[in-house]
Amino acid sequence: MVEEISDSPSTSHPNPENSESSSELDPITMRNTKPGFKRLFLSLSVLFSFILGFPLLWKSIEIYRTPLPFPQIDSFSSEIESNPLQFPCQFQAIFIGFDSRVSHGEVGSAITKKMYELNPNVSQCGHCSSYDVSVVVDSSFDCVGSGNLRGSDEDADELLKNCLGNGVDGGKVYSVVVVNGEEEEVRTVVGKYRHAWIVGKVSEEEAVWRVAEIFAKVFVNGGNEGSSIRGEFMPVGADGRIVLSFSLLNANPQDWIYDWNFREIDETLLQPVVEALHPIANITVESQVLYHTPKSSFSYWNDEHGSHIFSTKDLPFFVNSNEWHLDTSVAAGGRSKVLQLVVYIPSANECPLQLELPNGDLSKTNGFISPMWGGVVVWNPQSCKKDLESKDPVRHVISPQDLQKLFEILMGQLRQLLGLKSDNLYVGQSGTSILLGSERGFSEWELDVLSRKHICFNLLSCATTLGSLSRLVQSLPRMIIMDEIGKQVKFSLEAAKFALSNVSIGMYDASAVSSRHSRSLAEDAFFHPSIMSISYYSFEHCFAIYSPFFLPVSMHVILAALREWKRYKQENKKYLAWKTKAQVTS
Length: 586
Description:
By secondary structure, the protein is α/β, with parallel strands linked by helices.
C-alpha cells in the first residue's frame, strides 16, 4: 500500500525551497504576515468612547454654583474682627466764670485723662475713636450768659441748641457748659440734644471731674455701667425689623371687661418713637385685647400694704404661656423680632395686685421686663369691687389719663429693652444728673448711643454670617449656589462698606441703615431656601454611588484594550523579525 502511494503520479513532492523556509520559520518568534488592526481598533474604539463619554457624564451630574467673592468676604471679616469699629466723636467743654488765664490745653488734657480713667475700654467696638476735648474758658460767654441757664430746663436746652449747634463736618459734637456761680447747690442737667450744663459753685478740679464723667459715662455709654452690649440682648430681628405687640389682658372677664383707645395712643405717643428709631430698626405696631388670661404664679394678701402681693421670685412664673396667646402677630414675618408689651388687669379676687421689690418696698411702676421678650405692667382698676347686682360683666374703657401713664411705663420698659435707662436720673461718682426727656421718647445723644451699638453689632453679625457662609460653601463643593445668593452677598458687602465709610465721617443714621441692610442681606443669603431645602453630598458619596456600575465595566474595557495592544506589539515584533531575516537571507 505504501509503495502504491509512493508510486502514484498524483502524489506531490515538496519544493526544496519551501521546505527549507518552513523549517526556518518559528511560529513562536516570527510570522510572515503583517498583524491586523481590527481587534485593536475595536478595543481602542470602545475605550475612547468611554473616555469621551466621561465629560458628558460629569456634566450631567454637575451643579450650578455662582462664584462668591471669597477674598472680599475674608478681608471684610478679618478687618471687622481685628480692628474694632470706632466712631469719630468731638467733645467741647465751655467754662464760664472761671479764671481766663487758665491754660486751655491743660484743662483739656485733664478732662481727657479723667475720661480714660472712667472708661478705659476705648478700643472696644462701638466706642468713640478718641477722647480729644476742646476747651473754651471765658468769663462771660456772650451767647449763653451766666443767668440764662438758671431758669427753665427746657428753655435752657433750646438756648444751648441755638448757641452750640451740632458741630461741623458731619461729626457729633458733645458739649458741656459749666457756669461757676454763687449757688451752693451744684445742679447738673443733660439736655435732649447733645449738650449738658452745670450750674453752681464748683472748683476747677470738681468741674473737670463732672465734665469728664458726663462725657465718658453719659454721652459715650448712655448712662449705663456696662461698656458694651452683648449680641443676645439686641432686640432687633435679623431682617432689621421690630414688631411692638401691645396686649391688654383681662384675667377674668366675668368680673369686668376693659378696653382701650389704642389708635389715639398710636398716633400721639408711638409714631414719634417709631420715627426716632427708624434708622435703627423698621418698627411695626399692633395691638390686641385678650380675655380669660390668668397668670401662672400665686399671690398672697398683705395687711400692711392692703393689697395682694407677688414678689420678684414669682416673675419667672407670672407669664402664662398656655393661656396668654400673645404670638398671634400678622406683621411679624421671617426673622422679625416681636417684643411683647403687656398690660395685665387682675381678677376681682386678686385686686389690687402689687409687685414687691426685694427690699420690701412696692414697685412704683408695678411692672417688670424680660430681656428679648418684652415687658408686663399690672394695672389695677380704681374700684376693685365687683358689681354683684349685674349679671353681665361691666364693660369699661381705660381713661386717657390712665392710658398715658401706662404707656409712659411701657416706653420706659422699651428703653430698658434697648439698653438705656428707664428713669430721668443718672447717679454718678461726682453727683446726680437730671436727664431731660424728649417728646420722641429718645434724646439725640441716646439715639447716637443706640446707633453706635447697633451699627457695631450689625457689622459684626454680618461678618460672622458671611464668614460662615464662605466656609460652608467651600467645604461642600456640590452645594448649589444660585445667582440670587451671589447678588445678596455682593450687596451685603457693598452695604457694609458703605456703612464703614459713613462711620468714618460721623453719619450715624445713614451708617445704621446700611449696617442693618448688610446684616439682613447676609442672613437672607445664609438661609436661602435653595440651600436649606436640599441635602448635599460630597464627591466621595457620588463616587460610591456610580462606581459599582461604571468601575467593573471600565476595568474590563481598559484591560481588554491593554491586552490587545500588548498582543499587537508582540505579533508586530514577530513580523519585523521574519522580515529582517528574509532580507538578510536574500
